[in-house]
Amino acid sequence: MYTVHAIRYATREGLRGQHFLGYDDTWAEPHPTAYYVWLAVSDTRAVVLDAGLEPDRAPAAIAFDCTPHEGVASLGVDPADVDTLVLSHLHYDHTGAAARFPAARRVVQRAERDYWTGPVAKRITREHWLRSESDLATVLAPDRLDLVDGEAEIAPGLSVHLVGGHTAGMQLTRVWTARGWVVLASDAIHFTENLEQDRPGPILHSMPGIYAAYDRIRELADSAELIVPGHDPQVMDRFPRVGPHAVRIA
Ligand SMILES: [Zn+2]
Protein backbone atom coordinates (compact mmCIF):
# COMPACT_ATOMS: atom_id res chain seq x y z
CA MET A 1 0.00 0.00 0.00
CA TYR A 2 1.21 3.47 -0.92
CA THR A 3 0.71 7.03 0.20
CA VAL A 4 0.43 9.31 -2.84
CA HIS A 5 1.16 13.02 -3.03
CA ALA A 6 0.87 15.59 -5.80
CA ILE A 7 3.61 18.21 -5.78
CA ARG A 8 2.85 21.43 -7.63
CA TYR A 9 6.16 22.98 -8.60
CA ALA A 10 4.97 25.69 -11.03
CA THR A 11 1.99 27.51 -12.51
CA ARG A 12 1.25 29.40 -15.73
CA GLU A 13 -1.47 31.81 -16.84
CA GLY A 14 -3.24 30.63 -19.97
CA LEU A 15 -6.33 30.84 -22.13
CA ARG A 16 -9.03 28.22 -22.60
CA GLY A 17 -8.23 28.12 -26.30
CA GLN A 18 -4.73 26.89 -25.49
CA HIS A 19 -6.08 24.00 -23.46
CA PHE A 20 -9.17 22.73 -25.30
CA LEU A 21 -9.35 21.54 -28.87
CA GLY A 22 -11.67 23.46 -31.19
CA TYR A 23 -12.50 27.17 -31.36
CA ASP A 24 -15.51 28.43 -29.41
CA ASP A 25 -16.71 31.62 -27.73
CA THR A 26 -14.76 30.89 -24.57
CA TRP A 27 -11.41 30.75 -26.42
CA ALA A 28 -10.01 33.95 -24.87
CA GLU A 29 -11.16 33.32 -21.28
CA PRO A 30 -8.39 32.95 -18.69
CA HIS A 31 -7.48 29.36 -17.90
CA PRO A 32 -4.57 28.95 -15.49
CA THR A 33 -2.60 25.72 -15.46
CA ALA A 34 -0.28 23.99 -12.99
CA TYR A 35 2.77 21.73 -13.23
CA TYR A 36 3.10 18.66 -11.04
CA VAL A 37 5.15 15.64 -10.18
CA TRP A 38 3.71 12.86 -8.04
CA LEU A 39 5.28 10.81 -5.24
CA ALA A 40 4.18 7.31 -4.18
CA VAL A 41 5.81 5.85 -1.07
CA SER A 42 5.42 2.41 0.54
CA ASP A 43 7.36 0.71 3.35
CA THR A 44 9.99 -0.35 0.83
CA ARG A 45 9.67 1.85 -2.26
CA ALA A 46 9.83 5.51 -3.24
CA VAL A 47 8.48 6.09 -6.72
CA VAL A 48 8.25 9.44 -8.50
CA LEU A 49 5.91 9.84 -11.45
CA ASP A 50 7.32 12.29 -13.99
CA ALA A 51 10.46 14.31 -13.51
CA GLY A 52 9.06 17.78 -14.12
CA LEU A 53 10.98 20.76 -15.37
CA GLU A 54 13.67 23.04 -13.96
CA PRO A 55 13.55 26.86 -14.09
CA ASP A 56 16.66 27.36 -16.21
CA ARG A 57 15.19 25.24 -19.01
CA ALA A 58 11.60 26.53 -18.86
CA PRO A 59 9.74 29.12 -20.94
CA ALA A 60 9.45 32.49 -19.15
CA ALA A 61 5.67 32.12 -18.79
CA ILE A 62 6.08 29.27 -16.28
CA ALA A 63 6.32 30.59 -12.70
CA PHE A 64 8.13 28.26 -10.34
CA ASP A 65 7.27 27.62 -6.68
CA CYS A 66 10.12 25.17 -6.21
CA THR A 67 12.01 22.63 -8.27
CA PRO A 68 10.51 19.14 -8.59
CA HIS A 69 13.23 17.52 -6.50
CA GLU A 70 12.90 20.19 -3.80
CA GLY A 71 9.20 19.38 -3.70
CA VAL A 72 9.96 15.69 -3.21
CA ALA A 73 12.50 16.54 -0.49
CA SER A 74 9.92 18.74 1.27
CA LEU A 75 7.87 15.57 1.86
CA GLY A 76 10.76 13.92 3.67
CA VAL A 77 12.05 11.79 0.80
CA ASP A 78 15.64 12.28 -0.32
CA PRO A 79 15.62 12.46 -4.14
CA ALA A 80 18.69 10.21 -4.07
CA ASP A 81 16.54 7.51 -2.42
CA VAL A 82 13.91 7.48 -5.16
CA ASP A 83 14.26 4.02 -6.68
CA THR A 84 11.92 4.39 -9.64
CA LEU A 85 10.98 7.26 -11.94
CA VAL A 86 7.93 6.45 -14.04
CA LEU A 87 7.78 8.70 -17.09
CA SER A 88 4.19 8.97 -18.26
CA HIS A 89 5.42 10.35 -21.58
CA LEU A 90 8.47 12.21 -22.91
CA HIS A 91 7.26 15.81 -23.32
CA TYR A 92 9.85 18.30 -22.07
CA ASP A 93 7.86 19.33 -18.98
CA HIS A 94 7.79 15.71 -17.75
CA THR A 95 11.45 14.81 -18.36
CA GLY A 96 13.54 17.93 -17.64
CA ALA A 97 14.61 17.17 -14.07
CA ALA A 98 15.21 13.42 -14.46
CA ALA A 99 18.89 13.75 -13.54
CA ARG A 100 17.84 15.01 -10.08
CA PHE A 101 16.80 11.46 -9.18
CA PRO A 102 20.23 9.93 -9.65
CA ALA A 103 19.51 6.39 -8.40
CA ALA A 104 16.16 5.87 -10.08
CA ARG A 105 15.38 3.34 -12.78
CA ARG A 106 13.32 5.01 -15.51
CA VAL A 107 10.13 3.31 -16.70
CA VAL A 108 9.15 4.27 -20.26
CA GLN A 109 6.81 2.63 -22.75
CA ARG A 110 8.68 1.24 -25.76
CA ALA A 111 6.19 2.94 -28.10
CA GLU A 112 7.01 6.31 -26.52
CA ARG A 113 10.78 5.78 -26.87
CA ASP A 114 10.39 4.63 -30.45
CA TYR A 115 8.24 7.60 -31.44
CA TRP A 116 10.52 10.32 -30.06
CA THR A 117 13.71 8.68 -31.34
CA GLY A 118 12.22 7.74 -34.72
CA PRO A 119 12.06 9.74 -37.93
CA VAL A 120 8.53 11.14 -37.73
CA ALA A 121 8.68 13.27 -34.56
CA LYS A 122 11.62 15.21 -36.01
CA ARG A 123 9.58 16.10 -39.10
CA ILE A 124 6.43 17.35 -37.33
CA THR A 125 6.96 21.04 -36.58
CA ARG A 126 4.37 21.20 -33.79
CA GLU A 127 6.26 18.45 -31.91
CA HIS A 128 9.56 20.35 -31.82
CA TRP A 129 8.93 22.52 -28.78
CA LEU A 130 7.66 19.49 -26.82
CA ARG A 131 10.83 17.50 -27.38
CA SER A 132 14.26 17.95 -25.80
CA GLU A 133 17.21 16.08 -27.32
CA SER A 134 19.26 16.38 -24.14
CA ASP A 135 16.36 15.11 -21.98
CA LEU A 136 15.86 12.16 -24.29
CA ALA A 137 19.56 11.31 -24.03
CA THR A 138 19.32 11.42 -20.22
CA VAL A 139 16.12 9.49 -19.66
CA LEU A 140 16.79 6.88 -22.35
CA ALA A 141 20.34 6.08 -21.21
CA PRO A 142 20.28 2.29 -21.42
CA ASP A 143 21.92 1.51 -18.07
CA ARG A 144 18.89 2.64 -16.07
CA LEU A 145 16.07 2.32 -18.56
CA ASP A 146 13.22 -0.15 -18.07
CA LEU A 147 11.26 -0.28 -21.31
CA VAL A 148 7.77 -1.71 -20.94
CA ASP A 149 5.12 -2.78 -23.44
CA GLY A 150 1.47 -2.22 -22.58
CA GLU A 151 0.69 -3.10 -18.96
CA ALA A 152 3.38 -3.81 -16.39
CA GLU A 153 3.52 -4.24 -12.62
CA ILE A 154 6.39 -2.09 -11.37
CA ALA A 155 5.95 -3.33 -7.80
CA PRO A 156 3.02 -4.91 -5.94
CA GLY A 157 0.29 -2.26 -5.86
CA LEU A 158 1.83 -0.06 -8.56
CA SER A 159 1.38 -0.64 -12.28
CA VAL A 160 1.61 1.22 -15.58
CA HIS A 161 -0.88 1.02 -18.45
CA LEU A 162 -0.24 2.07 -22.03
CA VAL A 163 -3.04 4.24 -23.41
CA GLY A 164 -1.51 6.48 -26.08
CA GLY A 165 -3.71 9.35 -27.24
CA HIS A 166 -1.82 12.38 -25.91
CA THR A 167 1.44 10.85 -27.15
CA ALA A 168 2.28 7.58 -28.92
CA GLY A 169 3.26 5.78 -25.72
CA MET A 170 1.39 7.72 -23.03
CA GLN A 171 0.96 5.57 -19.91
CA LEU A 172 -1.23 5.78 -16.80
CA THR A 173 0.05 4.82 -13.36
CA ARG A 174 -2.28 2.96 -11.01
CA VAL A 175 -1.46 2.90 -7.30
CA TRP A 176 -3.02 0.95 -4.43
CA THR A 177 -3.78 3.19 -1.43
CA ALA A 178 -5.88 3.27 1.74
CA ARG A 179 -8.63 4.94 -0.34
CA GLY A 180 -8.50 2.33 -3.09
CA TRP A 181 -6.99 2.42 -6.58
CA VAL A 182 -5.70 5.86 -7.54
CA VAL A 183 -5.03 6.64 -11.21
CA LEU A 184 -2.30 9.17 -11.85
CA ALA A 185 -3.38 10.11 -15.35
CA SER A 186 -0.70 12.73 -16.00
CA ASP A 187 -1.43 14.25 -19.42
CA ALA A 188 -3.88 11.56 -20.52
CA ILE A 189 -6.16 14.23 -19.04
CA HIS A 190 -4.70 17.68 -18.41
CA PHE A 191 -7.82 18.87 -16.54
CA THR A 192 -10.75 17.06 -14.93
CA GLU A 193 -12.89 18.99 -17.42
CA ASN A 194 -11.36 16.96 -20.28
CA LEU A 195 -12.93 13.84 -18.80
CA GLU A 196 -16.19 15.39 -17.59
CA GLN A 197 -16.89 17.18 -20.89
CA ASP A 198 -15.37 14.43 -23.06
CA ARG A 199 -13.28 17.15 -24.70
CA PRO A 200 -9.56 16.75 -25.39
CA GLY A 201 -6.81 19.31 -25.40
CA PRO A 202 -5.11 20.42 -28.61
CA ILE A 203 -1.81 18.59 -28.09
CA LEU A 204 -2.48 15.03 -29.14
CA HIS A 205 -1.13 12.13 -31.13
CA SER A 206 -4.34 10.18 -31.80
CA MET A 207 -7.96 11.18 -31.25
CA PRO A 208 -9.24 7.58 -30.89
CA GLY A 209 -6.40 7.03 -28.43
CA ILE A 210 -7.52 10.04 -26.36
CA TYR A 211 -11.03 8.63 -25.96
CA ALA A 212 -9.83 5.09 -25.26
CA ALA A 213 -7.63 6.59 -22.56
CA TYR A 214 -10.62 8.35 -20.97
CA ASP A 215 -12.43 5.00 -20.79
CA ARG A 216 -9.40 3.21 -19.39
CA ILE A 217 -8.88 5.85 -16.70
CA ARG A 218 -12.43 5.28 -15.45
CA GLU A 219 -12.00 1.50 -15.50
CA LEU A 220 -8.80 1.58 -13.48
CA ALA A 221 -9.79 4.08 -10.76
CA ASP A 222 -11.96 3.07 -7.80
CA SER A 223 -13.85 6.40 -7.96
CA ALA A 224 -13.86 9.66 -9.89
CA GLU A 225 -12.22 11.39 -6.92
CA LEU A 226 -9.20 9.13 -7.26
CA ILE A 227 -8.46 10.22 -10.83
CA VAL A 228 -5.64 12.77 -10.83
CA PRO A 229 -5.20 14.95 -13.95
CA GLY A 230 -1.83 16.24 -15.14
CA HIS A 231 -2.12 20.05 -15.11
CA ASP A 232 -5.31 20.95 -13.22
CA PRO A 233 -4.84 23.72 -10.59
CA GLN A 234 -7.91 22.40 -8.72
CA VAL A 235 -5.94 19.36 -7.54
CA MET A 236 -4.48 21.66 -4.87
CA ASP A 237 -8.00 22.35 -3.54
CA ARG A 238 -9.48 18.88 -3.92
CA PHE A 239 -7.06 17.20 -1.51
CA PRO A 240 -5.62 18.14 1.91
CA ARG A 241 -2.52 20.33 1.85
CA VAL A 242 0.54 18.87 3.50
CA GLY A 243 2.96 21.72 2.88
CA PRO A 244 3.41 24.76 0.68
CA HIS A 245 3.75 22.74 -2.52
CA ALA A 246 1.97 19.44 -1.91
CA VAL A 247 -1.35 17.72 -1.29
CA ARG A 248 -1.98 14.19 -0.04
CA ILE A 249 -4.14 12.29 -2.51
CA ALA A 250 -4.38 9.15 -0.38
ZN1 LIG B 1 2.31 16.32 -22.31
TrEMBL record:
Keywords: Hydrolase, Metal-binding, Zinc
SMART domains per UniProt: Lactamase_B
A GO molecular-function annotation: metal ion binding
Record-linked SUPFAM superfamilies: Metallo-hydrolase/oxidoreductase (SSF56281)
The UniProt record lists the keyword Zinc: yes
Cofactor: Zn(2+)
Pfam families: Lactamase_B (PF00753)
Segments forming domain Metallo-beta-lactamase: 34-231
Recorded family membership: Belongs to the metallo-beta-lactamase superfamily.
Protein name: Glyoxylase, beta-lactamase superfamily II
Annotated source species: Pseudonocardia oroxyli
